Each structure stands twice: as C-alpha cells, then as structure tokens.
Amino acid sequence: MKNILFALAILAIAGCSSMQDLRKEPPSNTYQSKKQIDVVAECILNGWQEQSQKYGSVFIQPHEGGKTIFTQSQLEMADLKSEGEVTNIEFRHQGGLFNYRIDSRIKAIERCI
C-alpha cells in the first residue's frame, strides 16, 4: 500500500508546473485590448475570483513591467503587458484541466478586453 501511495505522490508532483514552466510553452490564447493594463487586469482578476468557490483562490502580481493573474497551484495564468496604447494578454494553463474550467477563464478574459 505504501508503494502505491508513493507512486501516486510522485505522479502528482511530476504533473505540477510552475509559472516559469508554463511560460516556456506558447500561450494557448492571446488577446489584445485598447484598455489600460490596470483596468483589464482588475477585470480579469474579478472575473476569475467569481469562480473561487469552484476552482480556488486567484492572485495578481507584477511581472516584467506588466501583471500576472494566476490561480491557486498555478494551474492557469494570464500575463498582461502594455505596448504603447495596447494591452497584450497571454493565457496559459496546465494540461489535464477540464474544458469547462478553461472555458470559464477564457470567457472572463474575453469580457474584459
């Protein structure tokens, strides 16, 4: 029994990615908005927080002159950067998530752009 639990723990750890690991892969979705970065970031944060009861906590932090919104365990993240009057958004997520969860994150982003 201990061997089975150990094997499951190793598989669970191997399936986790950090934000840096997610950024090594191309984004699953990209968006642009003519709204200011702070407006878009707050909107996405609030939209994702509406789902906190189902999917866990959502956080925001600065990243390379922009902002990152990410979920608990870093399962999904959105990087926002300003380029002139345009805010670029890159959405990434770990593999193995249910489509309805990913779709709810994408819909929140699309409402904010």
Task: Summarize the structure in words.
This protein is an alpha+beta fold. The chain is built from five helices and five strands; from the N terminus they run H-H-E-H-H-E-E-E-E-H. A five-stranded antiparallel sheet has the order 1-5-4-3-2. Helix 3 runs antiparallel to helix 5. The longest helix is centred in the last third of the chain and has 14 residues.
List the helices and strands and how they pair.
Layout lengths: L1 H13 L4 H6 L4 E5 L3 H13 L2 H4 L2 E6 L2 E6 L4 E8 L2 E8 L5 H14 L1
Antiparallel strand pairs: 1-5, 2-3, 3-4, 4-5
Keywords:
alpha+beta; globular
The assigned structural class equals: alpha+beta
Assembly form of the protein:
single chain
Instruction: Please compute the radius of gyration using only Cα atoms.
Output: 15 Å
Helix content: 40-55%
Strand elements, count: 5
| Poorly predicted residue ranges | 5-14
| Main beta-sheet strand count, sense and barrel state | 5 strands, antiparallel
How big a fraction of the residues is strand? Answer: 25-35%
Give the integer mean of the pLDDT values.
Answer: 88
> How far is the N terminus from the C terminus?
50 Å
User: How large is the count of helical segments?
Assistant: 5
Sheet with most strands: strand arrangement = 1-5-4-3-2
Molecular shape = globular
* SSE string: HHEHHEEEEH
